[in-house]
Design brief:
alpha+beta; 4-stranded antiparallel β-sheet; binds zinc ion; 2 helices; single chain
């Protein structure tokens, strides 16, 4: 007798660790906590029309969330600071594109 009442979809058991992109200098991934810290620094997505669309769902660049990303202060002391616009896909929760503007 089977009683699979498994409709809870709150937690996603899939771990994306395995399909993490290899270090791509054009598309770096930042720690989630650093990105969250910048989430209130929203930029106007319309200014980024024609940039990369989401590689997973194909959402266009102007429909993504753009934030003014700035890495934490310790990274600037260590001379590995990065700052610039970063696009996030609201559907896939991934970092789509980072445009490097400032580098320490
Ligand atoms: Zn997406």
């Amino acid at each position: 007798m089977r009683d699979d009442d498994d409709e809870l979809d709150i937690f996603n058991p899939e771990d994306d660790e395995s399909e993490r992109a290899i270090d791509d200098p054009d598309n770096p991934r930042f720690p989630e906590e650093d990105v969250v810290r910048c989430k209130n620094r929203r930029l106007n997505a319309a200014d980024f029309a024609g940039q990369n669309s989401c590689p997973r769902c194909g959402r266009k660049s102007e429909e993504l969330i753009w934030i003014n990303f700035r890495s934490p202060s310790w990274t600037w002391r260590e001379l590995c600071g990065r700052a610039g616009p970063l696009s996030l896909c609201p559907d896939c929760s991934i970092q789509v594109q980072f445009i490097l503007r400032v580098m320490s």
